[in-house]
Write a structure and sequence with these properties.
Layout (H helix, E strand, L loop, with lengths): L10 H17 L4 H33 L16
Helix pairs in contact: 1-2
Length: 80
């Protein structure tokens, strides 16, 4: 496990460490206390990844939607 605080990690770093944590837990060759610590770290990493993805989605929405919530550069859909 990394010593880097989870809230300071980039999405990529958090995802890479999460993959390692999952691998260790799947192997099942760690002691119970270490498994619990890995699970807790993994849960924090998952939360960090979700937060970073939400931030990215908000940025994409902000640059692709106009003030009315319509996609920029397209005409509104008319259902007649």
């Amino acid at each position: 496990m990394s010593d880097t605080p989870v809230d300071e990690m980039s999405f990529e770093a958090a995802m890479a460490e999460l993959e390692k944590v999952v691998g260790q837990l799947e192997r099942g060759d760690v002691a119970l206390e270490q498994s619990i610590a890995l699970y807790e770290r993994g849960a924090a990493l998952k939360k960090r990844c979700e937060a970073k993805l939400n931030e990215a989605q908000e940025k994409v929405a902000a640059i692709t939607l106009d003030a009315d919530g319509q996609p920029k550069g397209t005409a509104p859909f008319d259902a007649e």
